Amino acid sequence: MSMVSLPEHTLPTWRRAVLKVGSNLLAADGGGLTPRYAQRLAGFIDASQRAGREVVLVSSGAVAAGRALLRTRAVPGPELAAKQALAALGQAPMIALWQSLSERPVAQVLLTHDDLRNRRRYLNARATLRELLMLGVLPVVNENDTVAVDELKLGDNDNLAAIVAALVDADLLLIASDVDALYNADPRNNPAAEPIGHVPQLTPRIIAMAGGSGTGVGTGGMRTKLQAAEKAAAAGIPTALFSGRETATVTALEQDRLRGTLIDVAGNRMQARKYWLRHAPAGNGSVSIDAGAVRALTGGRASLLPGGILDVAGEFHRGDLVEIVDANDRPVARGLCQYGAAEVRRVAGRHSRDIATLLGYSYGEEVVHRDDLAIIAGESAA
């Protein structure tokens, strides 16, 4: 795309950023990986680190790298298993590419759905990433495709990058791809499409402008980038969308100039714990509550008590993140459950003082404590 009419903005002040690099910037025309565009982005990372800033890299490309290593033969097995095998095979060359371009040591960090759903593992991942940054290391994050299954996948690295940005308390989310900005129409089909340089707040109208994936190499398109920006904004983190293929664009980043789209944050940062509760992948279980409990949860700082519980669906364990729904299965809240599904079924509808008698023990009067709750009634939890 032409950069002639692309607007330029000053980047927000930042000390720590998450940079997501898409597959289309790493995949070589003949298969495998190429440093053609990655080298410029690595230069930006090095320059940022020399300036006392910290960068976490979320990189795609493992599957493309793995496929290139087996280009002379087909990969047997089901589609998911084949992709997992290619991801496992391609992780090493993908990390080797970034290490070859980086002035500093590179560390691989693979995250799964469960790492982000389990509060303790979430905090462990955050501690590891922060320690790597303190050591001056470049963390390279990816989803652990080798063990993920379709129903438990995070889905794409755009959304993973937004979650990682909140995980490390980043000041800025940078998304580099083969698209230079958000446009008011699809520029591939509409020559009159104009770039949008600044989005003060994501609205349904803005999100509706997004299309699907532009090529067959990556798993995300502009829609996933806006979804990621929405997640980042909920944590108080602005997002910059830009082309990683344009030398002038990447060079401008070193001077805190953005040639692309800046998606701003409306409002203050959400408390980190509440953000995690709203956006981390939930488990397979849910708790249905009555109208009185719905009013109590949505009307103030109330905990979920057993007396308001109508039913339990699925299975979960103590400490798992569960969905809380009303009698019509409409989302009300998400929270960390202090009891497992079998235990909640036994105390449902009963008074809190009966918990110890019914179970023979008690972890407290609340099934979900108010400090472990995030209200989502009337909103999307995505």
TrEMBL record:
Any one GO BP annotation for this protein: L-proline biosynthetic process
Role this protein plays: Catalyzes the transfer of a phosphate group to glutamate to form L-glutamate 5-phosphate.
Protein name: Glutamate 5-kinase
Lipid metabolism listed as a keyword: no
Top-level taxon: Bacteria
Origin organism lineage: Bacteria, Pseudomonadati, Pseudomonadota, Gammaproteobacteria, Lysobacterales
Residue numbers binding ATP: 20, 177-178, 219-225
Similarity remark: Belongs to the glutamate 5-kinase family.
